[in-house]
From TrEMBL:
Belongs to the cullin family. It holds the Pfam family Cullin_AB. InterPro entries: Cullin, Cullin-like_AB, Cullin_homology, Cullin_homology_sf, Cullin_neddylation_domain, WH-like_DNA-bd_sf, WH_DNA-bd_sf. PANTHER family: CULLIN. GO terms for molecular function: ubiquitin protein ligase binding. This is Cullin family profile domain-containing protein. PROSITE patterns: CULLIN_2 (PS50069). Residues 1-105 form the Cullin family profile domain. It comes from Fragilariopsis cylindrus CCMP1102. GO terms for biological process: ubiquitin-dependent protein catabolic process.
Length: 253
């Protein structure tokens, strides 16, 4: 298992999926690293970002010849879904959500559609629609009664196959949530840059601080936006205005 540690504030906000049910052979090294990290960096908080996880799954179709083995490069959620078919022939969406511990129905639909209705050479699962009318054409959605099973006659020209998640068309509500998340991430980033500069400088004039933040933040930011974040950090007692010069900020350790 390869593990990368990311810093909050420099990366977008991703869904956490805290209730994913990991197999023991993934859970053991995760717990060992968690214990090591908390011992080495006391006081820091660590959150596992399962949405960024990737797995290589060895796959052999049921009726494949002895030489027909594949390596599937998939997301962690895709891998957890595929592992459920080691012991079971057929499962519904609801059964998979329970078995995997993925409570986000939309994400589970994307995972299942990517494994069953993706491009040729990546459809390792077969989707069986419960409605006869829906069987006549490919439908990019999943009903509770639809069933999934391993594609027993799966074939591909390559042994190593990358299966990307399907991007669904965003609804108005999802777009609004995305915009809010991007705005929130931008605020976190500006805050992080401000704190980093102030921690290094200890004291700085307003007219010196603004251009330094704009240079380091790497995203569109107006002086008025930065000023609002400065005021927020003052309220939260990260900074203070100098008692003798209101254009100067002092860092509060």
């Amino acid at each position: 298992m390869d593990i990368q540690v990311l810093t909050t504030g420099y990366w977008p906000v991703y869904p956490l999926y805290p209730n994913l049910i990991l197999p023991q052979y993934l859970l053991d090294p995760q717990n060992k690293f968690t214990d090591y990290y908390k011992t080495k960096y006391q006081g820091r908080r660590m959150t596992w970002q399962y949405a960024l996880g990737h797995v290589v799954v060895r796959f052999k179709p049921n009726d494949a010849s002895s030489g027909s083995k594949y390596e599937l490069l998939v997301s962690l959620c895709q891998a957890l879904v595929l592992l459920q078919f080691n012991d079971t022939n057929e499962l519904t969406l609801q059964q998979l959500m329970s078995a995997v511990g993925l409570e986000d129905r939309g994400e589970m639909e994307r995972v299942l559609l990517s494994l069953s209705l993706g491009k040729d050479g990546t459809r390792v699962l077969q989707k069986r629609d419960h409605d006869a009318e829906r069987k006549k054409k490919i439908r990019m959605n999943v009903h509770n009664e639809d069933k999934f099973r391993v594609q027993s006659n799966f074939k591909s020209n390559t042994r190593r196959i990358r299966i990307n998640n399907i991007l669904m068309r965003e609804t108005k509500t999802e777009r609004e949530k995305t915009v809010k998340a991007v705005s929130r991430d931008r605020l976190y980033l500006i805050d992080a840059v401000l704190v980093r500069i102030m921690k290094a400088r200890k004291t700085i004039l307003h007219q010196q601080l603004i251009p330094q933040v704009m240079e380091q933040v790497k995203v569109p930011a107006q002086p008025a936006d930065i000023k609002k974040r400065i005021e927020s950090l003052i309220e939260r007692e990260y900074f203070e205005r100098d008692a003798t010069d209101r254009n100067r900020y002092n860092y509060l350790a």
